[in-house]
Design a protein that fits this description.
Elements (H helix, E strand, L loop, with lengths): L3 H15 L15 E11 L9 E14 L5 E15 L10 E3 L10 E4 L4 H12 L2 E3 L2 E5 L11 E3 L6 E6 L3 E6 L1 E2 L5 H12 L9 E5 L7 E8 L4 E3 H10 L5 H21 L3 E3 L1 H21 L7 H16 L4 E3 L11 E4 L5 E3 L10 H4 L6 H17 L7 H14 L9 H22 L5 H10 L25
Antiparallel strand pairs: 1-2, 2-3, 3-5, 3-11, 4-5, 6-7, 7-12, 8-9, 9-10, 10-13, 12-13, 14-17, 15-16, 17-18
Helix pairs in contact: 3-5, 4-9, 5-10, 6-7, 6-11, 7-11, 9-10, 9-11, 11-12
Length: 479
C-alpha cells in the first residue's frame, strides 16, 4: 500500500490495546513501545460504498522492552501476521472480534476487526489457496493432486493457542501462523516430507501461503490440511477414560505404535546425524544451563538441582565413554493434545509439527534424539492423571509403560536407553516448572511431582511427594 506510514500510525493505538489480549501474542506482561510495518497487502479492497467487507493482510513487528541474563535492558521485535477485516458498520455477530475504528489514516471512520472470524473473508482466503499465484509479497501454493472444492463453509475454531485455525466444510483445516519469521515452518516442511514416504499418520498439506520479502527466505504464513472429522485428541480421550475409571493402556499402546511409525518415516525422509562426545556434552551443557536458570527463577526447584544435574552428567558421560546416539527431525512438542484418534477405526494421527513456538526456528529444525518426543508424551500422561484426579494411583505409570510397549513394536524400546530418556524427561519437567510458575501457579505441584521422582526422591529438606491438591480448572491447552 502506498499509504503505509499513515496506515500504521492510525492502527498503532488500536493494536497496542488489542494484541496483548490475544492468546497467541507472545509478549504478554511487557509493554509495546511501537510497531514497524513489514508488509501490507490488500487481499480484497473495501468498496467505497455498500456492506461488502475488505480484507487487509499485515505483517507487523511489535517492539517490546525486555532484559537479558545480565538484567541490561534490551528489546525484542516479534513479527505478527494480522488479517484485518474492514467495514463501515460491523454486523452484530462480529462485534466480539472488533478491534476498533482508526482515528485517521486511510481507514479513518471504518471499523477493523479479526478478518478470519468473518465467513466471507475466510472463504476468500480459501479461494486464494485454491488458485495458486502471487499477490504482492504473498505467494499461494497448492499440491497438484490436491482437490479443494469451492464454496466450503468456513468456521473459526474457538480454542486458539499460538495460532488461529479455521475449518472448511469439515473437509479442510487452515492453520494461520501468528508469530512468524524467515524460513519454512516445520508444520509445512515435515508433513510434506512424510507424505512423500507414504506415511498416513500425518495429514498431508494440500495448500499453503508464504511471504517473500526483499530477497529474504520465504516466511510460512499458513497451511491447509485435511480435517479429520469425528476425531478426538488424546487429551480429551484420556480425561474421558479417567472420568469413568476406564483403562487407557490399549489406547496408549496404539499411540506408541503410531509415534514410532512417524519417527521411522521422518528418519527415512530427512537426514539424520550421529551425536558423538562433543554433541552429547553440548546437549548436556544446554540442559544444565536451563536447569540453573529455572532454579534461579523458581525457588521450589533449588533443592533438587544437584540430583537433577546428575541426569545431565550421565548424558555427557555417554559421550566420554565412547557411546553415540542418533538424532533426527522430530515432532518437537509432542503431547496428548497433538494426537487425534478417529472414532470410526480408532486410528491415531499426529498433528501440529510446529515445535515449541517460543523457541527460535533454527532450534526447532535441529535434529534431536527421538527421546525428546517420547519424554513429552510421558509427561503428558502425568498431567492427565493430575487433571483426572488420579494422582497417587498407577494410571499414569501403566499408560506410560503401555506407550513404550507400543513404541517398541516397530522401534527401539525407549526404556532400553534410560540415561537418554531420563535426561530428556528431566529437561521437559524443568521447562514445565518454569511455565507453571509464570502462568499457572496452581499447577506447579504437577511438574514438581515429576521433579521429585526424577531426582530419585532426594532434596535438601522435606518431601514433595505427588500432587498435594488438584488444580482448580483443567487447562484449555496442554503444554
Amino acid at each position: 500500500m502506498s499509504e503505509a506510514a499513515p496506515l500504521l500510525a492510525s492502527l498503532a493505538p488500536l493494536l497496542t490495546e488489542w494484541l496483548p489480549r490475544q492468546r497467541w501474542f507472545a509478549g504478554k506482561g511487557r509493554p509495546i513501545d511501537g510497531f514497524t510495518l513489514v508488509a501490507a497487502t490488500e487481499i480484497l479492497p473495501k468498496p467505497p460504498t455498500g456492506t461488502a467487507p475488505g480484507l487487509l493482510h499485515l505483517l507487523v513487528r511489535a517492539r517490546q522492552p525486555t532484559q537479558d541474563s545480565t538484567t541490561h535492558p534490551t528489546a525484542t521485535d516479534d513479527c505478527y501476521q494480522l488479517l484485518l477485516g474492514v467495514q463501515d458498520v460491523l454486523p452484530p455477530q462480529l462485534a466480539p472480534v472488533r478491534i476498533g475504528r482508526p482515528a485517521g489514516g486511510p481507514l479513518h471512520g471504518r471499523t477493523v476487526y479479526e478478518g478470519l472470524a468473518d465467513p466471507r473473508l475466510a472463504a476468500l482466503l480459501l479461494e486464494r489457496l485454491r488458485v495458486p499465484g502471487r499477490l504482492g509479497p504473498l505467494r499461494f501454493s497448492r499440491e497438484p493432486e490436491a482437490k479443494i472444492p469451492p464454496d466450503l463453509t468456513p468456521r473459526l475454531l474457538g480454542a486458539e493457542q499460538s495460532n488461529s485455525s479455521a475449518v472448511y466444510g469439515e473437509t479442510y483445516i487452515l492453520k494461520l501462523f501468528r508469530r512468524v519469521g524467515p524460513g519454512t515452518n516445520p508444520d509445512l516442511e515435515l508433513p510434506r516430507a512424510l507424505a512423500k514416504t507414504g506415511c498416513a499418520r500425518v495429514p498431508a498439506p494440500a495448500a499453503w501461503f508464504e511471504a517473500e520479502l526483499h530477497g529474504a527466505m520465504p516466511m510460512t504464513l499458513g497451511v491447509l490440511q485435511p480435517f479429520l472429522p469425528g476425531s478426538a485428541d488424546g487429551w480429551q480421550l484420556a480425561l474421558g477414560a479417567l472420568s469413568v475409571q476406564a483403562d487407557f493402556t490399549a489406547s496408549a499402546r496404539a499411540l506408541g505404535h503410531a509415534v514410532a511409525e512417524v519417527h521411522l518415516a521422518l528418519a527415512e525422509a530427512l537426514p539424520t546425524v550421529v551425536l558423538r562426545r562433543p554433541q552429547l556434552e553440548r546437549l548436556a551443557e544446554v540442559m544444565t544451563r536451563r536447569l540453573e536458570a529455572t532454579a534461579e527463577a523458581v525457588p521450589a526447584l533449588r533443592p533438587y538441582r544437584w540430583a537433577l544435574g546428575e541426569a545431565y552428567d550421565e548424558l555427557a558421560a555417554l559421550g566420554r565413554d565412547g557411546h553415540t546416539r542418533r538424532a533426527q527431525r522430530v515432532h518437537g512438542d509432542l503431547h496428548l493434545g497433538q494426537a487425534l484418534r478417529t472414532a470410526a477405526d480408532g486410528r491415531w494421527s499426529l498433528i501440529d509439527f510446529e515445535g515449541e513456538p517460543a523457541r527460535p526456528l533454527p532450534e526447532r529444525c535441529r535434529p534431536q534424539p527421538v527421546a525428546q518426543d517420547i519424554a513429552g508424551m510421558l509427561r503428558s500422561f502425568d498431567y492427565a492423571a493430575a487433571v483426572g484426579r488420579a494422582a497417587g494411583t498407577d494410571w499414569a505409570e501403566r499408560s506410560r509403560a503401555a506407550f513404550c510397549e507400543g513404541y517398541a513394536t516397530v522401534h527401539q524400546d525407549p526404556r532400553e536407553d534410560p540415561r537418554l530418556l531420563r535426561a530428556h524427561e528431566t529437561e521437559k519437567a524443568v521447562y514445565e516448572v518454569l511455565y507453571e510458575a509464570r502462568h499457572r501457579p496452581d499447577w506447579l505441584s504437577v511438574p514438581m511431582s515429576a521433579i521429585h521422582r526424577l531426582a530419585g526422591g532426594h532434596r535438601a529438606t522435606g518431601v514433595h511427594a505427588g500432587l498435594t491438591r488438584p488444580p482448580r480448572t483443567p487447562p484449555e491447552d496442554h503444554l
